[in-house]
Amino acid sequence: MTTAAATQRLAVITGSVREGRFAPTVTDWFAEEARTHGHFEVDVIDLAEVELPYALGEQRPEGLAAVGARLAAADAFVMVTPEYNHAYPASLKHLIDWHYAEWQAKPVGFVSYGGLAGGLRAVEALRPVLNELHAAPIRDVVSFHGVWEQFGEDGRLKEGSGATAAAKTMLDRLVWWSTALGEARARRPYDAV
Questions:
Q1: How far apart are CA 185 and CA 2, in angstroms?
Q2: Which range of residues forms the domain containing residue 116?
Q3: Handedness of CA 96, 102, 103, 107 (dihedral sign)
Q4: C-alpha angle with apex 156: 152 to 158, nearest 5 degrees?
Q5: pTM for this structure?
Q6: Is residue 153 part of a domain?
Q7: Residue 143's CATH number
């Protein structure tokens, strides 16, 4: 059974696979924040390293077994997503659609980034998708508006952005939700049927 003092597994998912993407910079920063927080064992899943078939079929391809096991082992998720054309990347949608039970009754947080909107439209598009899969998207988000100006050439976050405080708040909420949902799943397995 999961308790508040236990270390839980947090899967941090890098959603962009585009050439020249900024995603690794944002993911690396957030993964370090999560490790520093101290409650989670962090597992970074970079979708650029996962072969996601674009044609959905009845059976999940064997090549997705490893990422499926990592998702199933997670107590909580954080999706790092840019905003492309007012939505999230197709690679993230493919990952979501190839899995079902792995998301159920687990909290999901978001780190979004982009230009003026900071990726928030991508987050709002993800929420109903994850609700449909019986996941529990949380309210608190880390959002980077004008992301390219917020990180230095060395990939480090510049001072004064407020992102570190936002990350701590989101991680604190994920601890609460992952603990509560983990205890509930242990007492009574979740049945989405």
A1: 10
A2: 20-59+67-187
A3: negative
A4: 65
A5: 0.93
A6: yes
A7: 3.40.50.360
Q: What are phi and psi of 146, to 5 degrees?
A: 60, 50
What span, in angstroms and rounded, lies between the C-alpha atoms of 38 and 36? 5
Question: What pLDDT digit, counting tens, does each position of 60-80 carry?
Answer: 888 899 999 999 999 999 999
Q: Is residue 4 part of a domain?
A: no
Residue 15 lies in a domain: no
CA distances from 58 to 46, 55, 98, 176 (A): 25, 10, 10, 35
The rounded distance, in Å, linking the Cα atoms of 102 and 104 is 6
Tell me which residue of 80, 170, 157, 152 sits closest to 119, measured CA to CA: 80
Task: Kindly give the pairing relationship between strand 107-114 and strand 8-14.
Answer: unpaired
| C-beta separation of 142 from 112 below 8 A | yes
| Residue 172 in tokens | 């604190």
State how many domains the chain has. 1
12: in domain: no
Query: Which amino acid type is present at position 143?
Result: S
Torsion of CA 9, 10, 11, 14, to 10 degrees: -160
Average pLDDT, the chain: 92
